[in-house]
Amino acid sequence: MKHEFEVARSAALESGKILLDYYDNDYKIDDKGASLMYSGLNPVTDADRASDEYLKSTLTSEFPHYGWLSEETKDSPDRLSKERVWIVDPLDGTKEYIEKVPMWVVSIALVENKEPVLGILYNPVKEELFSAVKGEGAKLNGERVSCSTETDPSQMVILNSRTETRDGLWLPYKDEFKELKGVGSVAYKLGLTGAAKADIFATLRPKNEWDICAGHCIVNEAGGKMIDLNGAEVTYNNKNTLIASGMVAGYPKAVDNTFALLTAGDSERAYG
């Protein structure tokens, strides 16, 4: 796994340079159409495509027998027969990228038998590199990190979606947490959670595998876990890449308590 990590890390850094080259210049923005994941524009840019082209060329040439799944590449069923699959979002947080909000990342994950075993997130604006390899812990810029151990929702800072907040999805929970903090890029939120920059991550809308896979590995290696809002473990390299129920990630007991709160409705809530 050392070779895979070094190649993926180098590719993330180079992809970050490509994205920064576009960042302050003119580039084409297209709308991919309606999405279950958020309202409004579902953008893709020349920068997304350039990053994707570079990552695919680099990773698949170095590891030709591994499968490939990316937000910006047409999917192929060939990946379903592969033991190892790269799952990539070449620019997670395209809306933030367009708005010049520095909450976007390059996201690279390697999955083995449906489980994330390598994760890298790179925010080139803030020069933050989150990384993890299964069994080796999680790091931010080379320093070991771990999830916050706060378990009382009333004391938690929860990272949620800027769009979900604007759309009013979090209004029923605004008094349940210490702070609801809107951050762009699903992957970036997971990296921040794994580095204890907040206590928990949650989303109430569907997400695709490429949005969360690298961040899931980082949270796992930071001592946390992720479940969907049906209470199930999240797996990868599935035929249908959409996780339809939303999800929560962080320190295990914090996840359990947040899950109970988000799924309790009007029933009595208790936190251990």
Detailed description of the structure:
The chain has helices spanning 2-23, 46-62, 94-99, 162-166, 186-194, 209-221, 252-263, and strands at 29-31, 43-45, 67-70, 84-92, 105-112, 115-123, 128-133, 138-140, 143-145, 157-160, 179-182, 200-203, 207-208, 225-228, 242-243, 247-250. Helix content is 31%, strand content 26%. It folds into 2 domains: 2-145, Fructose-1,6-Bisphosphatase, Chain A, domain 1; 153-263, 3-Layer(aba) Sandwich (D-Maltodextrin-Binding Protein, domain 2), CATH 3.40.190.80. It has a 7-stranded mixed β-sheet with strand order 3-4-5-6-7-8-9, sandwiched between helices. A 5-stranded mixed β-sheet has the order 11-10-12-16-14, sandwiched between helices. It is of the alpha+beta class and 272 residues long. A hairpin with a 2-residue loop joins β5 and β6. α1 runs antiparallel to α2 (46-62). The chain has 7 helices and 16 strands.
Number of strands: 16
N-C termini distance: 38 Å
Radius of gyration: 17 Å
Domains (count): 2
- Give, in spatial order, the strands making up the sheet with the most strands: 3-4-5-6-7-8-9
- The structure class reads alpha+beta
Helix content: 25-40%
Classify the fold: give the CATH topology of the largest domain.
Fructose-1,6-Bisphosphatase, Chain A, domain 1
CATH class of the largest domain: Alpha Beta
The major β-sheet equals: 7 strands, mixed
Return the string of H and E elements.
HEEHEEHEEEEEEHEHEEHEEEH
For CATH, the homologous superfamily of the largest domain is named as Fructose-1,6-Bisphosphatase, subunit A, domain 1
Our count of helices gives 7
> Which shape, going by the Cα principal axes?
globular
Strand content: 25-35%
* CATH-scheme architecture of the largest domain: 2-Layer Sandwich
Pick out the low-confidence regions: 266-272
Mean pLDDT: 92
